[in-house]
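sorry to bug you again but im stuck and you know this stuff better than me. theres a chain ive been looking at and ive put its sequence and its fold in C-alpha cell form underneath. id like you to explain what the C-alpha cell line says about the fold, in plain words if possible. anything you notice is useful, everything is just below.
___
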Amino acid sequence: MLTKKNFILDTNVILHDSSCISHFDEHDIVVPITVIEELDHFKKGNQVINFHAREFIRTLDNLSANKLMNGGASLGPGKGRIAIRLEQEAHPDLRKHFPAVSKPDHQILNLAYHLQKEEREERFILVSKDVNLRLKAKAVGLMAEDYTTDHVNDIHALYSGSRYMEEVNGDLIASLYSTSDGMASAGLGA
C-alpha cells in the first residue's frame, strides 16, 4: 500500500503561499525547474506575489543547494524532503495531446507524468491553484489537488468581536494612514 506521497508544486501555489513547503507533513515535495524559472519572473515588484516569489527563493537558498538537485534536502525532523527536478523530454503519451510542450503548465504536467511512469511505487500528486491544469492532469491519469491550507474549516472559530480603544495616540493614527503595509498589533498597544 502506498502511504508516502510526493507533491509536485505549481508556481501559483508558491505565489499564493511562500511557506507552502511547511504544510506537507512527512511527505516529499518536488519543485520543477520550470517553476523556479517562472518565480524568477515574479521576484521583482511590490505586490504580494512578488514577496512570495522572493521569500520562497530565499527559503530554497537557505537549504543546501547541491542537495536540492541530488535527491533532495530534508525539511526537518518529521518532515519530508524537497527536491528540484529538471525538465524531461516530452513524453510520447502527452505530446499528441499537448503539442505546445514549451508552455510552462505543460512542462510541469510532463514532469509529473514522467515521474509517475518511471517511479510506479511512488505516488505523485500535482498541487495547483489552476483548475485547468488540474483537469488536464486528471485527464491523463494523474492525481491533482487544489492547495487549500488557507481555507477556514470552521467559520465559528474565527474571532467575531471588536475592541474599543480610548486615548489612542495621534501619531499612531497618522502612522496607520501613512503606510500601506499595515502595522503589527503589538505596535498598536493592544
Notes: The beta strands are 5-9, 28-32, 73-74, 81-85, 123-127, 143-145. The mean pLDDT is 86. The two ends are 51 Å apart (CA to CA). The chain is about 40% helix and 15% strand.
